[in-house]
């Protein structure tokens, strides 16, 4: 997994703009918190897309649509609720700087979808594909896993494993019972 000191290598315009924003903040402020995360999902959905990955795959499966999900892009699905809690904890400190903040563990998007369906007891028409076949408009990194190195060094509460966070999310949304 990437740590905060690793050199970024943005692959598309969106990623370059995010990195430019980080550099801008670093150059104008002495005290700041920059947060990098990965595979974010939460109860409120995604502002730009309407739904997050979890809700989208469940909705498509309920419609009986076949699902093709990339199996060569590694991520750490991250609960927005857990991230918000850790950010709340972090901003109470004076440990300014750049932080990676994600749930623990890693998987491909396909494995994430497969786990979602396993937890809710569904068996949809789910197929793994590679990024080239998926042909997304923007190039995406094959490995986006981040290590919460600095958060751990400063003793912030550890994030749960992504599978545990997913299970909590599915319970909160009423997809499964406790």
Set down the secondary structure blueprint.
Layout lengths: L12 H16 L4 E4 L3 E2 L11 H10 L4 E4 L3 E2 L2 E2 H11 L6 E4 L6 E2 H12 L5 E4 L1 H4 L14 H5 L8 H11 L6
Parallel strand pairs: 1-6, 2-5, 3-8
Antiparallel strand pairs: 4-7
Helix pairs in contact: 4-7
Question: How would you portray this structure in words?
Answer:
With about 180 residues, the protein is α/β, with parallel strands linked by helices. Helices cover about 40% and strands about 15% of the residues. The strands form four sheets. Strands 1-6 form a two-stranded parallel ribbon. The chain has a two-stranded parallel sheet with strand order 2-5. A two-stranded parallel sheet has the order 3-8. The longest helix is centred in the first third of the chain and has 16 residues, at about 15-30. The mean pLDDT is about 95.
Q: Please give the oligomerization state of what you see.
A: single chain
Q: What general outline do the C-alpha atoms trace?
A: globular
Biggest β-sheet: strands ordered side by side in the sheet: 1-6
Q: Indicate the mean pLDDT.
A: 93
* CA radius of gyration: 17 Å
The count of helical stretches stands at: 7
Which spans have pLDDT < 50 for at least 5 consecutive residues?
none
Number of strands: 8
Describe the largest sheet. 2 strands, parallel
SSE succession: HEEHEEEHEEHEHHH
Helix content: 25-40%
Q: Strand percentage, roughly? A: 5-15%
Structural class determined from secondary elements: alpha/beta
- End-to-end CA span: 32 Å
List keywords for this structure.
178 residues, alpha/beta, two-stranded parallel ribbon
């Amino acid at each position: 997994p990437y740590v905060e000191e690793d050199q970024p290598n943005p692959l598309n315009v969106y990623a370059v703009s995010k990195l430019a924003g980080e550099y801008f903040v670093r150059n104008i402020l002495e005290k700041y918190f920059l947060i990098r995360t990965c595979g974010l999902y939460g109860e409120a959905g995604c502002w730009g897309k309407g739904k997050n990955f979890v809700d989208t795959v469940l909705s498509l499966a309920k419609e009986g649509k076949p699902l093709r999900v990339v199996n060569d892009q590694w991520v750490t699905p991250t609960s927005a609720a857990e991230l918000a809690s850790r950010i709340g904890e972090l901003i109470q400190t004076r440990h300014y700087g750049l932080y990676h903040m994600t749930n623990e563990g890693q998987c491909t998007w396909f494995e994430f979808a497969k786990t979602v369906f396993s937890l809710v007891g569904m068996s949809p028409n789910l197929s793994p594909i590679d990024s080239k076949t998926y042909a997304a408009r923007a190039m995406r990194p094959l490995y986006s896993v981040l290590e919460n190195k600095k958060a751990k060094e400063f003793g912030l509460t550890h994030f749960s494993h992504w599978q545990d966070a997913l299970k909590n999310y599915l319970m909160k949304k009423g997809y499964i019972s406790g």
